[in-house]
Amino acid sequence: MKKTVLKFGSYGLVMGFIIFILHLTLGIDNLDYSTNEILGYVSIFLSLSFIFFGIKHYRDKINDGVISLGKAITIGVLISLLVGLGIAIADFIYTKYIDPEFFSRYEQMMKDQGNADQIMEMTSTMAAVFMLVLVTVIGFIISLISGLILQRK
């Protein structure tokens, strides 16, 4: 199980970094916040797609065509933790070093839209933790769905 998690978690992590680099090089500053948010969720889902493939690989190649729902969820959540860690690190580097004014510009945009009551003070570390938790929760949901599809007794 450990090899499967590391292999497919690494694939997801690399996919996340590639999308992050493409996003930076193609002009992140030229897009509005809602477009960037959509692209962020797309990158999360693409990176987490390796959960399904990791569970399927484990079932078919390692465990003789059998996998329980619990084992599938375990594998999927562990893969999502690796992917989440990569995305959290990328988010931290971006907001701390590449664009340290990101949060102040985002706060101003929220005020300009009349959403000042929804503003929360955010730091790069808090954003990274939030991303790790978000990716892990989404990964759990994908793991559950994948496990239900792929389970065999």
CA gyration radius, whole angstroms = 18 Å
Order of helices and strands: HHHHHH
Q: From the helix content, strand content and strand pairing, which structural class follows?
A: mainly alpha
Q: Can you tell me the overall shape?
A: elongated
Using DSSP, what is the number of strands?
A: 0
Unreliably modeled segments = none
Largest sheet: none
Strand content: under 5%
Instruction: Assign a percent range to the helix content.
Output: over 70%
Average per-residue pLDDT, rounded, comes to: 85
Number of helices: 6
Please report the distance between the alpha carbons of the first and last residues.
17 Å
What's the short version?
This protein has 153 residues and is mainly α. The chain has helices at residues 2-25, 33-48, 50-62, 69-98, 102-112, 124-150.
Account of the protein in words:
With 153 residues, the protein is mainly alpha-helical. The chain has 6 helices and no strands. The mean pLDDT is 85.
Layout of secondary structure:
Elements: H1 2-25, H2 33-48, H3 50-62, H4 69-98, H5 102-112, H6 124-150
Helix pairs in contact: 1-2, 1-3, 1-4, 3-4, 3-6, 4-6
Kindly list the characteristics that best describe this protein.
153 residues, mainly alpha, 6 helices, elongated
